[in-house]
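Hello forum,

I keep getting stuck at the same step: I have a sequence, I want structure tokens, and every attempt I make locally crashes halfway through. Rather than fight my setup again tonight, could one of you with a working pipeline run this one for me? It's a single chain of 436 residues.
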Amino acid sequence: MPVFSTHSGLVITAESQEAASAVEAFEANLLGLRRELDDVPGQADQYLETPMLQTCAAIYFIYGQSQQTNALAAPYLERAESMAESCTEREQSFIRAIRLFLNNAFHDALLMLEAQTERYPHDLLAAKIAEFLYYCLGQHYSGHRFQSHMGRLEEANADSAGYWSMRSFATELCGDYETARPEAERSLALDEFQPWAHHTLAHLLSRGGRIDSGLAEIEGLMPMWRRANRGIHCHNAWHLALLHLDLMDIENAEKVLHEDLWGITPDTVFEQIDTIALLWRMDLAGVRKDEIWRDVANRAEQYAGQCMIPFLDGHFAYALARVGNEDAAQMAVAKAYERAKQSDVEALEVWRPIGAEFVAACADFGRGKTAEGADRLDPIISLVPMVGGSDAQDDLFRQAYISGLRDSGKQADAESTFERFYGAKWRTAFDDKLLS
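Reply #2:
Ran it on my machine without issues. Output:
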């Protein structure tokens, strides 16, 4: 089969220049989180004899984070595997890594992709998939590993906006906020349409900035997000809603919820997770949105108990318990404990020591049994970053724990725990509500 060179000097095995260009476009669209990502399944159906394009279509569906989307990914990856012998060594290794990813062998997939970028530092597609695997393993927990990975790729990719957006986020996760901002700005100087760099800026504001003086900058980026891939539009909208909630500006938080967060692609996992994460915080702030909760929980039930990563199952368990769907909530918790009994790396390192009990705690919080939820989290609260998600996403569970301590009459413990986790952070109106 013919081979074609990319702009960065890598080689793609493809049936035509058009097919090779589609692979290269997928990398650019994934790095820039552009709407054109949605084109790749159709392109893969058109160019059936280009293994990397089949793999790109599989990746597109794997990002859906469910057994249902994994089932859509499988035929594309199987087609790529059937042609792998005709590929380059780099492509074969990449296809094997995506097979591990599809099989939920996140640790092994990440090791393969890290090795791949060590050998091929221009391979930003492999680096971007690795970034998502850090999320599966806990981006905050994996922050320094993520940052080290990005650091060794700088020389090869210093002119890439997508690279600097990843680099800035890794730096933020490590708490180096002063460095993360100029890295995000470097990304935007190369390409202003970089919603992942905007994502870094939103993290920086929520983690350490004065929200009342920085909110306008983030709010002004919404028109770009609406032109981006739906996943980042949704997630960055979630960050904006959280910033409003931090100020206890419920009206504007709800405005974002209704216009840009919930109801556009409501059967997708990412939209459900971001919506649950906002509504749960509203619960903590004493703002109840029961009607939306019912809609979200009804749609989320199909994904409960799939045990992709504890982070997801914790959200689903809370939502189901929150609306009184006790059968589904109990099933989700039981599945988590079953997952913890297995013998693979994910079970041994995540589900058994923390994941199952974490999901059970989330269900307790959803039932309104906040003291019980806090008791479950107490021995593992420092390990919460291992369940998946970012620092900002995992704040939800720390906040729920603090509220549980408060509800247990342990006000001093709630205050000291807040100081331990957030002592250097500008204290918001939401923080005051959480502790009152």
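The chain has a mean pLDDT of 97. If your local run keeps crashing, start a new thread with the error log.
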